[in-house]
Every structure is written in C-alpha cells, then in structure tokens.
C-alpha cells in the first residue's frame, strides 16, 4: 500500500519560513512526478507546486512563485517544499500528492499568524 507521510508543518509568523517534507514508500518514487497541494478553510484544494520525476522541471502556482521551492531527493524517496516569506493567506493544510498513482498524504497544517 502506497504511503505518503508529510511533516514539517506548524505555526510561523508572517515573513517566516517552513520546510515541508513528504516521505514516500511502497512505490517507485524515482519514476513518479510529485506535487504539493493545499486547502484553506472553506476553499477548494489547489495545486501549489509540481516537480517531474527527475527533478529537472518544476511549476508553481502564481501565488507562491518566487517564495516557494519544490525539490526532491530520489535516494531518500522524499519530496520537499521550502516556503519562504510566508503570508497569512498561505495558511492551509498542505498535502503531498503522487498524481500518476493518484495517492495523497494525510496533510500537514501550516498556520501563518502573528
């Protein structure tokens, strides 16, 4: 059974940084593109960032471009989301997603507040 386990969420002040991690297991991680989504209260889940299987190409939502960076370490079966210059509107539950195999993690809460 595929597993995606997120970690690294928490409470941070505006302007701060967090690094999310998603540890993957029970599938061929290095062959799969990965993405991060988020869902704020009362809103639909939205795509935040995407990375190809090799890590050679990435895409970002306009709202996070220049502030967030997605990366991966295929040797560790882990995908990361470095989030800088955080804003209150970044508050959401962040989910790791493996689109090719349609699998989701359980989510990790990120709260940006003073």
Largest sheet: 7 strands, mixed
Order of helices and strands: EEEEEEEEEEE
β-sheet strand percentage: over 45%
Q: pLDDT average, as an integer? A: 97
Secondary-structure-based class equals mainly beta
The coarse silhouette is globular
Low confidence ranges: none
Radius of gyration: 13 Å
Number of strands: 11
What is the overall number of helices? 0
State the share of residues found in helices, binned by percent.
under 10%
Distance between the ends:
40 Å
Describe it for me?
Strands 2, 4, 5, 6, 9, 10 and 11 form a seven-stranded mixed β-sheet that branches. A four-stranded antiparallel β-sheet has the order 1-3-8-7, with no helix packed on it. Helices cover 0% and strands 50% of the residues. 30% of the residues are buried. The model has no long low-confidence stretch (mean pLDDT 97). The chain has 114 residues and is mainly β. The chain starts with a strand and ends with a strand.
List the keywords.
0% helix; 114 residues; seven-stranded mixed sheet; mainly beta; globular; 11 strands; four-stranded antiparallel sheet
């Amino acid at each position: 059974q595929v597993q995606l386990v997120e970690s690294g969420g928490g409470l941070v002040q505006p302007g701060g940084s967090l690094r999310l991690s998603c540890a993957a297991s029970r599938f061929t991680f290095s062959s799969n593109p990965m993405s991060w989504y988020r869902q704020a209260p009362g809103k639909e889940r939205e795509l935040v960032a995407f990375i190809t299987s090799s890590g050679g190409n990435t895409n970002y939502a306009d709202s996070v471009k220049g502030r967030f960076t997605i990366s991966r370490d295929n040797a560790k079966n882990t995908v990361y989301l470095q989030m800088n210059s955080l804003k209150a509107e970044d508050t959401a539950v962040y989910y790791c997603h493996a689109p090719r195999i349609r699998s989701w993690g359980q989510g990790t809460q990120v709260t940006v507040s003073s």
